[in-house]
TrEMBL record, chain A:
Residue ranges constituting the ABC transmembrane type-1 domain according to the UniProt record: 74-267
Principal location listed in the UniProt entry: membrane
InterPro entries, alphabetized: BP-dep_ABC_trans_perm, MetI-like, MetI-like_sf
Official protein name in the record: Carbohydrate ABC transporter permease
SUPFAM superfamilies per record: MetI-like
Organism: Arthrobacter echini
Record membrane topology: Multi-pass membrane protein
Keyword Transport: yes
GO cellular component: plasma membrane
From TrEMBL, chain B:
Gene Ontology terms: biological process: transmembrane transport
Swiss-Prot/TrEMBL keywords: Cell membrane, Membrane, Transmembrane, Transmembrane helix, Transport
Family: Belongs to the binding-protein-dependent transport system permease family.
Pro residues bias spans: 1-11
Region: Disordered, residue numbers: 1-37
Pfam families, sorted: BPD_transp_1
The protein's name: Sugar ABC transporter permease
Biased composition (Polar residues): 12-27
InterPro entries attached to this UniProt entry: MetI-like (IPR000515), MetI-like_sf (IPR035906)
Topological type in the membrane: Multi-pass membrane protein
Compartments it resides in: Cell membrane
Length: 282, 335
């Protein structure tokens, strides 16, 4: 028994290491690249040559000559993604509440629409928007990205939240009212604490999706006023014309990965349950 | 639909000319259904009041653009020469569908879709099994690790893989130079096959976690008693998989495959970053982008967009009708 459980533990240790390698190797790879000096880039090794590791790439994008480019892109990405997430979650919360709690015709239509929108090819939306935004002055503005981002964040928010809300024991609300609470009190004290985790998880998932966008970012912006990080990375050029931007791009890539890793570390359980909700109880 | 406008009074009791005697006599009996229907109506109104904004926004950001694209696809129209806009009917579609570029790009897109989805299904299933069976102590670590590729920006993933394989900054050539065909002079991004290999590797790495989470959800639905019973009956691991587990999670597998296939069909970021479509790696999304955003050929670009949209519709339709994929059922309908 002890023998087989030790064997079991060793086996699981190996499996865990393999999964960790799979999941983290590309991140480690770009992390290593971000510390390479320009002269060290062609060394053909994974790690920077010892003694030559440098933080100059980070300096370049945070305080150096690429600062304007990167920091404005970072500000755009954070601002636009947060606003798009917020709007999507508010609209989706109302919508999912109605779907989970109320009986009205067209419920299925709303859910089917959300599904259809989520499989919609982004590039098919971009061409007409590109033209329209230029005409009405939304091209290269925050609002010009926030609106199309809703096509990415809203459908998944509705599905995730509807699944969450269906699991809430709504009888608690009536029970609280029977106990003398007003309907607002009942909602606030009994329902909000149960619904909040679902709303929060949905917000994380929606934020990931907005944060990840590239097609809208490169098509609907042209300058630092609204260009988000993924698009900015694609148009990054080196410190000089003769220098590849490899190091700077890697450093920027690591910086925009930090929020993702933090959210994942803190909320892995919620994110997993959010992504699988509806299929798995709890 | 039935939203803001209250329905006309359909209840006969509310008509003024009904005799008072009848009304008083049957008040309790008739009032109840009337109240009920009013409450139901109020509920409908509230339902659409709450769900309406999200519904309208979704239509505005997708239905409107695709209609606009359909309209614009009927014109020969270049943004740099707005005065030369000319109605050409289905001409743009004719131009595209008779051009070998469209068919080559469609082939590349389908190839990427089929290979990535097949690999991801196997890899994702393995990961799902691992997460499902994992000891409590490592479960959290595994989930956290898996979610990193899920949350990472696709463009970041593209750069990570690109720099690893790149002939100048990469280390893959020097690591694997003992393999036939790989040496320090191999430029991965200068041939179709090798470039597609790296593009697909990045795509697979980034999106397998999503498919594995959907499959994990499916695995959790397989009743434990079934696999236990099979085990007692002496079934091997493979038999358990084939006869018990997989048949019982068919719905989840179908949904995962369809979702990923549609997503892979729209692939753009990885290709744009690594090759920008050079050396025969162009995909349909990139073709649409190149026409409308780079060349400002709005008419042609719109036509490509519409065709791409039709392809997605056809794939979904075939999957739903032919393979009976019940998207609504598995993705939250039963929650």
């Amino acid at each position: 028994m002890t023998n087989s459980s030790t064997k079991n533990k060793v086996l699981w240790a190996i499996v865990t290491v393999l999964v960790l390698l799979y999941a983290l190797f590309p991140v480690a790879s770009i992390l290593a690249t971000s510390f390479k000096a320009p002269s060290d880039l062609t060394s053909g090794t994974f790690l920077p040559t010892s003694g030559q590791a440098t933080t100059s790439n980070y300096e370049q994008i945070l305080v150096g000559n690429a600062q304007g480019l990167f920091l404005s892109a970072l500000r755009n990405s954070i601002g636009i993604s947060l606003i798009a997430t917020f709007i999507a979650v508010v609209l989706a919360t109302l919508c999912a509440y109605a779907i989970a709690r109320l009986d009205f015709p067209g419920k299925g239509l709303v859910l089917t629409t959300a599904l259809a929108v989520s499989i919609f090819p982004v590039i098919s939306i971009v061409t007409p928007l590109f033209n329209l935004w230029r005409t009405i002055g939304l091209y290269d503005t925050w609002l010009g990205l926030i609106i199309p981002y809703l096509s990415l964040t809203l459908p998944i928010s509705i599905w995730t939240l509807a699944a969450f809300f269906r699991q809430i024991p709504w009888e608690l609300e009536q029970a609280a009212q029977v106990d003398g609470a007003t309907s607002w009190q009942a909602f606030r004290k009994a329902i909000v604490p149960l619904a909040a985790p679902g709303v929060f998880t949905t917000a994380i998932i929606a934020f990931f999706i907005a944060w990840n966008d590239f097609v809208y970012g490169i098509s609907l912006t042209s300058t630092e006023t609204a260009r988000p990080v993924p698009a900015a990375l694609a148009f990054f050029t080196g410190a000089s014309q003769f220098e590849a931007p490899t190091g700077a791009i890697s450093a920027a890539a690591i910086i925009v990965t930090i929020p993702v890793v933090l959210l994942v570390l803190l909320f892995q359980r919620q994110i997993v349950s959010g992504l699988t909700s509806g299929a798995v109880k709890g | 639909m039935t939203s803001a406008v209250p329905a006309p009074p359909a209840n006969p009791t509310s008509s003024p000319d009904s005799t008072p005697s009848v009304e008083t006599r049957s008040t309790p009996g008739k009032k109840a259904p009337k109240q009920y229907s009013e409450r139901a109506r109020a509920e409908r109104r509230l339902g659409w009041l709450l769900a309406g904004p999200a519904f309208v926004v979704m239509l505005l950001v997708t239905l409107y653009p695709i209609l606009q694209a359909t309209y614009e696809s009927l014109f020969q129209f270049r943004l740099t020469a707005p005065d030369e806009r000319q109605f050409v009917g289905l001409g743009n579609y004719g131009v595209i569908l008779t051009d070998s570029v469209w068919w080559r790009d469609l082939g590349t897109t389908l190839l990427i879709t089929v290979i990535t989805v097949a690999v991801e299904l196997v890899l994702g299933f393995a990961l799902a099994l691992v997460m499902n069976k994992a000891l409590k102590s490592v479960r959290g670590v595994l989930r956290t690790a898996i979610l990193v590729p899920y949350g990472i920006i696709t463009v970041v993933s593209a750069f990570a893989w690109f720099y690893a394989f790149d002939i100048n900054s990469g280390y893959v050539n020097s690591w694997f130079d003992w393999l036939p065909g790989i040496d320090e002079n191999l430029n991965w991004f200068a041939q179709t096959g090798t470039a597609l290999f790296v593009i697909m590797a990045s795509e697979i790495w980034k999106t397998t976690p999503f498919i594995s989470l959907l499959l994990l959800a499916g695995l959790a639905q397989v009743p434990d008693e079934l696999s236990e019973a099979a085990k007692v009956d002496g079934a091997t691991w493979w038999e358990q998989m084939r006869k018990v587990i997989i048949p019982n999670m068919k719905a989840a597998i179908m949904v995962a495959v369809l979702f990923r296939a549609l997503d892979a069909f729209r692939i753009f970021d990885n290709v744009f970053i690594m090759t920008n479509g050079a050396y025969g790696t162009e995909v349909l999304s990139l073709l649409a982008y190149r026409q409308s955003i780079s060349r400002l050929e709005i008419g042609l670009g719109s036509a490509v967009s519409v065709l791409l949209f039709l392809c997605v519709l056809i794939i979904s339709f075939v999957a739903i009708k032919l393979f009976k994929v019940d998207l609504a059922g598995t993705q939250g309908g039963k929650g």
